Amino acid sequence: xxxxxxxxxxxxxxxxxxxxxxxxxxxxxxxxxxxxxxxxxxxxxxxxxxxxxxxxxxxxxxxxxxxxxxxxxxxxxxxxxxxxxxxxxxxxxxxxxxxxxxxxxxxxxxxxxxxxxxxxxxxxxxxxxxxxxxxxxxxxxxxxxxxxxxxxxxxxxxxxxxxxxxxxxxxxxxxxx
Length: 177
Description:
Blueprint: E1 6-11, H1 17-32, E2 36-39, H2 45-55, E3 60-64, E4 78-81, H3 88-95, E5 99-102, H4 106-117, E6 122-125, E7 130-132, E8 135-137, E9 140-142, H5 146-165
Parallel strand pairs: 1-2, 1-5, 2-3, 3-4, 5-6, 6-9
Antiparallel strand pairs: 7-8
């Protein structure tokens, strides 16, 4: 692929300090590996990840829920105006070849659901735990730190790209479509 790899970074908009620090480091780690990041474009994890990416010379894309590019955080290079509110969560995760979830509130959980439902790998860093009924669901790939999250996201994105290049769907068979 000749295009720059894009990975989605999602997480809570009111990030606790330790979560913001993790997100900023994820941004640094991805940018140092030549990856552009896409996020919801606002504050919290989104802003922290973009700040980290920019400090390492990376490119940032913000998929904004409203109608104004001025709502984007100061570290967004490319604001995408949607006017879609929370529906933009689907666009955020579809834009990246993999998703890194850092912390997270209910909007993050929504994005995780969209990603997994569409076959996008989700790398989790201190984020949601999932179950199906009473059984643990291991769909989220766990990372131990920001560097581990970046490495796992890039590997998962490359694997997904290979499947797509082979003309196959990445949507899991367990989902009825």
